[in-house]
From TrEMBL:
This is Large ribosomal subunit protein uL6. InterPro entries: Ribosomal_uL6-like (IPR000702), Ribosomal_uL6-like_a/b-dom_sf (IPR036789), Ribosomal_uL6_a/b-dom (IPR020040), Ribosomal_uL6_bac-type (IPR019906), Ribosomal_uL6_CS (IPR002358). The keyword Chaperone does not apply. This protein binds to the 23S rRNA, and is important in its secondary structure. It is located near the subunit interface in the base of the L7/L12 stalk, and near the tRNA binding site of the peptidyltransferase center. GO terms for cellular component: ribosome. It comes from the Bacteria.
């Protein structure tokens, strides 16, 4: 039995979980998220808890059991607390500025790079080199942060670029001087 999959998920106050066939809808103070559960897995709401069960010990059922439970738990955390990911812009002349709901990067290109937030995602700029990506969907927050980082990844010689908050960039020595 999956150690993660068999754990019940407690439903906090102010959150409702509705199961309709294979669709699970989670509503909370920050918004609403839905999840379509893969076919062999079954989800039930019982006495303030969400229970995820599997019908058999087939390989596919076992792999989906813990995954489904974690996705539902992430949705519950998302509608109550939300998720956020921090990014840092490192480099001489590299900076970021808020332009309405979108953000504008100056990253050494010949032009500024404008990034618009997808639906359900908000950007917050602190100073001129820190960005916080936040929202209720954990996957969307992570994907948006990864796409922003992809604009100018941190390079290994000087460490310049966009990195996650707290990310350690491995540095290379470079050419030896004469």
């Amino acid at each position: 039995m999956s150690r993660i999959g068999r754990l019940p998920i407690d439903i906090p106050a102010g959150v409702t979980v509705e199961v309709a066939g294979q669709d699970v809808a989670v509503k909370g103070p920050k918004g609403e998220l839905t999840l379509t559960v893969a076919r062999p897995i079954e989800v039930k709401v019982d006495e303030g808890q969400v229970l995820v069960t599997r019908p058999d010990d087939e390989r596919e059922s076992r792999s989906l059991h813990g995954l489904t439970r974690t996705l539902i738990a992430n949705n519950i955390i998302g509608v109550t607390q939300g998720y956020s990911k921090g990014l840092e812009v490192v480099g001489t002349g590299y900076r970021v500025a808020q332009k309405g709901s979108s953000i504008e990067f100056a990253l050494g290109f010949s032009h500024p790079v404008l990034v618009d937030p997808p639906a359900g995602i908000t950007f917050a700029v602190e100073g001129n080199n820190k960005v916080t990506v936040s929202g209720i969907d954990k996957q969307a927050v992570g994907e948006t942060a990864a796409n922003i980082r992809k604009i100018r990844k941190p390079e290994p010689y000087k460490g310049k670029g966009i990195r996650y908050a707290g990310e350690v960039v491995r540095r290379k020595a470079g050419k030896a001087g004469k």
